[in-house]
Amino acid sequence: MAEEEATASSLCKEVSEASAYTFNEYDTNTDEDGVGLLIDFSTPEPVRKDLQQLSYNSQLDCTDEENFEDFGEADDLESDTSDHLSHNKSCENCHKIRSKRGVNYREKHHRRSSSGYFTFSTPREYRSFGLRSVSRRSVAAALHNNNHYSPKSRSPVPDDEVLADIDGSFNHLNDKVQLLESQILQLNEEKNKSFSVQSKLKDENSLLIERVHSLEEQLKDVELKSDERVFDEQKKYKEIMSRKDREKSDEMEYVTRRLQNLESECDQLKQENPKLRLDVERLRNEKRELQEKLSETQSDYNTLLAEHEDFKRRSERERETTGQLLDELGKELGELRQFKIEVDLHRPRGDSQGELPGRYHALQTEVTRLKEENKALHDTNEDLSAQLLTNCLEEGRTLMKNKENSLAAELDHLTKEELLDKLKKQTDINIRLEAYVDKILLRIMEMNPTLLEVPTCVTMFKFLKRHPPKDSEEREKLKKELFGYRRCLDHGFPSKPSCMAHDPKLRLLAVGTKQGIIKVYGQPGVELTGELMSDATVNQLFFLNEEGRLVAVSSDNTIYLWEINVKKEKTVLENVKEFVFGVEEGKPKNISVCCVTKDGKCLLIGTEEGNIYMLDLQTFKLMEQIVYQDVVMQNVPDDFKVNPGAVETIANHPTNPDKFLIGYNRGLIVLWDNKECNADQTYNATQQLESVAWHRNGSEFISAHIDGSYIKWKSTDSSEPKEPALTPYGPFPCKAISKICWKTAKSDPFIIFSGGMPRASYGDRHTISVMQENSNNHIVFDFTSKVVDFVTITRADENDSSEDRDENDEPHTLVVLAEEEIVLIDLDSTNWPTFHLPYMNSLHCSAITCSQHVGNIPNQLWQKIVDAGEAQMDGLSKRDWPINGGKLEGAEGSTKDLLLTGHEDGTVKFWDASGTSMKLLYKLSTCSIFNVDIHTGGDSNGEVEEEWPPFRKVGNYDPFSDDPRLGIQKISLCPLSETLVIAGTAGQVITLQMEREDREQEVETVKVNIVSDRDSFVWKGHEALPQREGDIKFSSGFQPTSVMQVYPPAACTALAFNSEWQLVAAGTAHGFGLFDYAQKKEVLVRCTLNPTDMTGTSDTPMSRRKSLKKSLRESFRKLRRGRSQRRDRGKKEEKAEEKTTGIEETPAEGATSRTSPAASPEPRPVERAVEARSTEDSMASMVRCLYFADTFITQGAGNTPSLWVGTNGGHVYIYSISVPTEKRSETDVTSLLAKEIKLRHKAPVISIGVVDSRARSLPDPLEVQHERAKAPEMSGQHSVVICSEEQLKIFSLPQLKARWKFKLTALHGSRIRKVAFVTFRSKSDENYTENDIACLSNQGDLSVYSIMTLREQLMASALRREDINGISSFTFTKQGQGFFLNSPSEYIRVTLSSRYVTDSNCAVELKEGMRPEPEPEPEPVVEEAPVAEAPTEGTAEGTQEEEKQGEGENLASQQQYNSGDIAEALSDSQLMNDSRADTTIEGEITQDSIQVLVSYY
């Protein structure tokens, strides 16, 4: 019995533990009596029944243990199952324990049944009470009680059956208990883990609590500090407010006083106004009278001018005759004086006075005899001339009588083909003969000119000198194929812009300037230019939408109508109509503002008097309807009936084409109904009006005023504004808002205006403000130059039609025109970035100091430059260019060309000069090499300053230089080796190489001391730029490899480098140096200073120290030299004529702006005397040109590399260079002075070039290796062309004998400024090329000379002589084109080649019916003229003879050699004293000419 109890007790203990740890595995089931049972559905059915019975029996008694939630873990509480009172007591204790723990349990109502068990009303009660109360001890006690209770208290089930059931299910329970034990162990492990996690969480919680406490303390400290700071800021703000209030009061007082003064002045002006009007009327009448008198005077002046010219010509002839007579008389006087001296010496003194009368009579008789003899000689000369003419006539008559042997008889027997063949053969023979004679003469003149100086050939030599061999007809045709001057295009930003207009339909942009120039731009390459007849300013421009027409209003009250038309297969901007406003009535009416109506048929013209006139744009005549200011003022309230001033602005109604707003200067705004001719509404603003703009819906508009405020109005309510006046950057005084726009968008509406900045703080800034009303998007775009105008491009304007109209404007681009640049802002993209300009670039962002054109760039280098440039354009807009109207016709340039410009701030810009639009590709800065402070200006690309207003720098114009020493003076690029050399103002010469990747490297600097051999030299100029030490990071592009620092650090005046030899030569005002950039080593230095000038300054290359005595001595020498030259001018001219050649005197044929002596009756140009320049001038040491050449230097040696140096004093140094072919990086380069040339007149040498025996210039380095040029001819003789400011001269090599020269200064009185060796290609024959010399003079004339004979091929006037900047900035290309600065911001491209002409080939397509048809012109009235009588036979014959005579004269004037010239040359010695020797017949003797002479006589 004891064993059974122990077994039951242990079993109950295990079951209670299993029930405590497996509570979640059970479900609650309710029987019919409502008793809650805990059933485990995972156990077998027999076991489950036993467990149910066991749990039912365990509910017989309740101990204190079952009152805890820890499911049997409170073992300290004992239970007495035999006593129900103890049970109740334990329940009370359990309730107390629960209340102490703060756990709210549901109050359980239990009752004991008749069998002594507890029953529960719900399963939840059973779970919360019965199940949780089951423990090991309670189960054992329950089993014990089941065995020892009296029969009264036992269950109805017999004990034996229960024991049998327990015994029978013991094995099953054992298995289940083991399973439960394993689960209990797992749960214990999980519980331990959860305890560890809870402990960690508690620790972390404690740390976080401490952290929270510390943060609270810090927060309290921050609050205290912030309170203190707020208090300080409030105190400062109050002080500022008080100060500003004082300033405001002072300014208000000043404004009040100023207003009073202005009112008083206004009253005075009102009083003076009537007087002035009377004076104006009087002056107008006087002007009219003066104009009439002026017209009469002008006609008289023209008559007198003609008489004056006639008198001038006669006086010139008389002056020449008088001069000759005076010379003869002077000679006779000298002879007489000499004769008198001789007579006085040989005769006795006493008889001198007595013999004088006799001597006088003898001389008088001799003079009479000589006059009679001279008269007889004149008669004889006339007889001989008449006899000669008679002989010619007799020969002509004989030729006419003998028709069998005449030329006409010969021509009758020949067919047309035979005649043409013979004529062609004869022409070829003549051409070859002429060429042969020319070659012989040139060879004689070159090798032994003395052969032509024999007495028998003197007259022939004079003839050849005066009449050089002329070009043949074939040559003339070829010259037209090769040469031709033309002005092609303008590149850059228009100078001094004044207004702008945009056509949203055609997507064109027009810009007007103060010089009266109008430019129309479309897509890149579409550019049209027009110019007003006068130099008036273009004040306003208006496009007539989709019509391709433009209305321009100028400052002289003239209105022009321009049209885009096609003329001679080329699209041009043509002026078709013009209207001068204010002339009809005679009263001055100055235009203040204009506006084109919405339908584009009428131009509204507002005047300063306050009236509005209407111009019909179809007829270009004023309409009868006029909006008078008096009519407008009738609807204005009495309080505002004052003079509103001039018409300030006009704005069309967006939805009603018959209405428009009129804004007057003093703030009055009127909504005018043009159809009804009355004012709908009048709006009164207290401030002066500047601009108005409509809302898209037409129900609202906005007005901008002079005090920096804007007001929103309702169009239907004029009593008060919709919103009060808003000053965006107030409350302090602000500048005026000059223009405002109000555009709607899906997101938020845009308000865009110019100006409005606070006067005191930012009154000097040029701004455009863009803000969206309902968002925080607000940016003030800050420009470095004054804002001229701005235009907003919207999608609605581009897409709207008469039938369909968008709901919102949707602006996407803001176009801002400033004085020095144009900026386009992308309003669609985030942060509103700017666009990259494909044209209209501001070339003078920093002043241009030099330039170079490089043609035919290799594709590889071009792509590298483009990639490097794109990497610099991060932050710009990615959208396509919005101004893309028009279309291009024809392909762009076949080659890729670059124009490199050096700037004052040390940058070099690479421009695409291949086509019509010049686009910036890449920008190189040299500032990073030197240790200088760099100013970060220009476009900030989205960076907004942290201040109010929110400024953002935009645009590229930045005229300020960080350091003037950074300025670029010379540029040289070799596209084949991808090497760039830059020379600067402080003597820095930088060698750079193209790289694709970013690199970090140290740049080595080599100092080259030019004055190393002059110990006494003192430099007083600026210091050299400090070099940055250590590694420097360079972005992709051209990266420096070495720096040659010249000392003294003066500006570089000449630069040359040879990429094949890897040598660089640089010259300054003190000398030059040769640098090997492969080994980074100095090769050669030479000082060209005069030993007496050993002081240098920064302002001039050298100081000029001349004493007063020396200057006076030079002045007296010049006076004596001038007197002696005037005395012996006749003799010297004759000697000079014998020594000079014809090339030096006569300009060649083919000039476009000058005529040759043969084709013009004007006298031959007289050669000017060129004086030698002083050698004491310190400027003579300046190096003007450097040149590398592989040619013949020394006699008997082969071709060697050489360096040619030309100075300002006419000195040329020739150095032979030894360049190693192997181990280039190890073997040194050596140089040796070979020869020197000193020009006679010491003129500055500005260019040097070597040509081979075929008259071809030596190719550039590496061109032969890359098959871009033919190898030079080394078997024949080379020649060097030395170009000075005064002449071109060719020397043979290596003898250095003079061959040809052309004296430009002596002939034209000008000096050469720019020289280039150009290859001209024929327009029709691509295979024919010719090398020539192109020159630009200080007079602005462009000329071309052949290399072989220096004959002038072309002369054209391209620039004004006053345009010094344009002449100094001129750059030639190798194909015959040129670039020069027309203004600081604009390049002009010209061409001297007939083949290479870069011109805009574009078109603008218009829709059919968009442009109105022009009105038919009235037919002119033709008056009936009297019928002329038929000409008589003699008259007709005379007319024919006159035509034939004219043809004969023209033919004779065009001949190269004619019988008259030869006869004149042969008879020159015999008829030298005959004044009628010019009567020799010129021209060939033909049948026609003889007929003319016969009919004449």
Task: Describe, in short, the structure shown.
This protein has 1497 residues and is of the alpha+beta class.
Describe this structure in words.
- With 1497 residues, this protein is α+β, with helices and mostly antiparallel strands.
- It contains 24 helices and 66 strands.
- The protein has a five-stranded mixed β-sheet with strand order 25-26-27-28-37, with no helix packed on it.
- Helix 1 (2-21) packs antiparallel against helix 5 (136-148) and helix 8 (352-401) packs across helix 24 (1487-1496).
- The termini are far apart.
Unreliable residue runs: 1-5, 11-43, 54-137, 146-158, 348-352, 453-467, 1097-1109, 1131-1166, 1420-1497
State the end-to-end distance.
186 Å
Radius of gyration: 54 Å
* Total count of strands: 66
